[in-house]
Here is the input.
Amino acid sequence: MRKMFSFVKNTLVPLLLLSQAGPGAAASPAYPTAPELSFLYTAYVKCEGTLMESRGPHGIRKAIPIVGGNFTGPHLSGNDPSLAHEYHWPQTNVFSADTRYNLRTHDGENIFIQTSGPKSPSGQLHLRLVFETGSEKYYWLNNVLGRFMM
Here is the structure.
């Protein structure tokens, strides 16, 4: 036990102190800085009636086809050419969306998007967007977590 205490006192404690007081420690803020938000685009999505409705463990799942649309903004613009689905989980009177769809940018690149999130008690819908693309030009989107408000 004494050897373990000696190891902790002589080895680990100085390493921990060194890691906390490394270069730039004096300039580090006490709290992490908040991420900055940037407006990406506005989307207009065309949906058609409910494709299917089925009961599951989380309530009734409704599949609503997304049959087209477009998006415009300072960072992205193009259209939604593919057939996609928006799934709703209206369990206990709480609307929750789960969508997957593809975007095609104005310059022909493809971007896959997955969104999810519940409707707030105030009625606003707040979704989390996760982007995926192999495009070199838009690869930065793979590291973006978006927020959609409606």
